[in-house]
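Consider the tokenized backbone below.
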């Protein structure tokens, strides 16, 4: 079992944009999601995108006039983000989620942690720590928004094999193996190599967080919380600093 950072570095990051359907399609989905959450956004918003990846949400926010600090441990994905950001007000920093505060000069209006990034943290206490840092870094009325998968109901049998993406040269399948607090995520990648297929497998651990636990932990950090459906079967929490 590798760490999430190592898994991305050696396995997932090089194929991540392919898996997401390409930059433009993925950023359009991010744009639609941001629009659904914020039909209007005042200009001059300061935002942090935690686990920003290639900028699926950071780029749409910056296009709408926000200044964004995008934090991620994957240099490969951050390079994609920088390459597409051009002159947009996005600062991409390679760092751990729990270290984001050292990149802030002042409190911000918005902190995002999208696309199942929360579950990559090593333990529930790290999630609680992140919520407390977010509460401490937001202006009054500021928002913390996260989307994540609820892995608490376990998939069983063949349901644990999830076809993620395929084309003529590549097949990505995910296999889930559950234990009490975690799910072990095996990313099984077949890549065509001439007339043969090359198989590479890497696994890492994700947290099994329930929406109820996330909501209670956010409230304990001083947020009022709304829980709603997010993109692609994820859960979305919209938490407002009270
Ligand atoms: C599932 S991807 C989501 C990316 C993006 N937010 C989106 O919605 O497309 C998770 C991201 O979190 C990053 N990540 C995972 N663990 C991290 C950590 N401890 N600190 C910083 N980034 C992390 C990964 O490199 C990856 O880019």
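A designed sequence for it:
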């Amino acid at each position: 079992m590798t760490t999430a950072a190592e898994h991305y570095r050696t396995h997932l990051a090089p194929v991540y944009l392919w898996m997401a359907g390409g930059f433009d399609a993925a950023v359009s989905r991010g744009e639609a999601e941001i629009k659904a959450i914020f039909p209007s956004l005042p200009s001059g918003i300061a935002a942090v995108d935690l686990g920003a990846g290639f900028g699926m949400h950071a780029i749409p926010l910056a296009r709408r006039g926000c200044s964004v600090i995008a934090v991620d441990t994957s240099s490969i994905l951050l390079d994609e983000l920088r390459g597409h950001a051009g002159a947009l007000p996005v600062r991409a920093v390679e760092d751990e989620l729990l270290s984001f505060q050292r990149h802030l000069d002042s409190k911000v209006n918005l902190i995002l942690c999208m696309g199942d990034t929360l579950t990559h943290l090593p333990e529930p206490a790290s999630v609680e720590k992140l919520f407390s840092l977010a509460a401490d870094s937001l202006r009054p009325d500021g928002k913390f928004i996260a989307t994540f998968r609820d892995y608490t109901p376990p998939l069983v049998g063949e349901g644990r094999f999830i076809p993620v993406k395929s084309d003529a040269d590549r097949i990505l399948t995910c296999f889930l193996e559950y234990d009490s607090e975690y799910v072990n995520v095996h990313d099984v990648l077949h890549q065509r190599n001439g007339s043969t297929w090359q198989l590479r497998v890497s696994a890492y651990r994700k947290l099994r967080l329930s929406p109820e636990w996330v909501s209670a932990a956010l409230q304990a950090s001083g947020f009022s919380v709304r829980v709603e459906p997010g993109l692609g079967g994820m859960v979305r929490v919209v938490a407002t600093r009270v």
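The chain has six helices and eleven strands.
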